[in-house]
Write a structure and sequence with these properties.
The protein is α/β, with parallel strands linked by helices. It has eight helices and six strands. A six-stranded parallel β-sheet has the order 2-1-3-4-5-6, sandwiched between helices. α5 crosses α8 and α6 crosses α7. The longest helix is centred in the C-terminal third of the chain and has 15 residues.
């Protein structure tokens, strides 16, 4: 079951999206909101966030995407813009999916399933265009581990602080190394800083 949050300030569109998504046996909407601020503290159990942008510029949306991406969420943007530059802004900010307003229900469902499985999905409107690779998706747990790594904690100390097995820490670190292409702990810290996963002022 994929748990979703839908962020959309058009009540009628929000209703239509709810009907389409909840008609799927493998999807459940757990959060409905009109803006990002309403869901920032409520998305711990959400795997995919559908962010609807039919009014604001994608520059604004890209900042919202970056904020959600830093929190470890996988975001799909549904946008009114047909400009490739707007799509690039959102993708560089961390969007795992990008769809145009011409998207039909079938493509929307396909996009959600793809993103939920860990893949990216960029709609038919971007087919054949040159778009950047999005930054790697870092989960909430991986963010916690990166912060401990940046603070200089050992694997055993991380396991104790998170109340998980040390082997589990090793597994998370190996996934982070594959996602980042970094092998050493210092490189992982630099990767986290460069991608806004941790901040300089959080380092002790």
């Amino acid at each position: 079951m994929t748990h979703l949050a839908v962020i959309c300030d058009w009540p009628l569109l929000q209703l239509g999206l709810t009907q389409v998504l909840e008609a799927q046996p493998d999807m459940r909407i757990t959060t409905l909101a009109s803006c990002v601020d309403e869901v920032a503290l409520e998305t711990a159990d959400v795997e995919v966030i559908l962010l609807i942008n039919l009014q604001s510029r994608d520059q604004v949306t890209s900042r919202e995407v970056a904020r959600l991406h830093r929190q470890g969420h996988a975001v799909i943007v549904l946008s009114a813009s047909g400009a490739q530059s707007d799509a690039v802004l959102c993708i560089k900010a961390g969007a795992r999916g990008y769809l145009s307003r011409q998207t039909d229900a079938c493509e929307l469902v396909c996009a959600v399933r793809a993103v939920a499985s860990g893949s990216d999905y960029f709609g038919a409107s971007l087919a054949g265009r040159s778009i950047p690779a999005p930054p790697p998706h870092i989960t909430g747990r991986e963010r916690q581990i990166l912060q401990f790594v940046a603070d200089g904690a050992t694997d055993r100390e991380i396991a104790t602080k998170l109340n998980i097995a040390e082997n589990t820490v090793h597994t998370h670190l190996e996934r982070l190394r594959r996602k980042s292409g970094s092998r050493r702990r210092a490189e992982l810290t630099r990767f986290a800083l460069e991608n806004g996963i941790i901040e300089d002022d959080l380092l002790e």
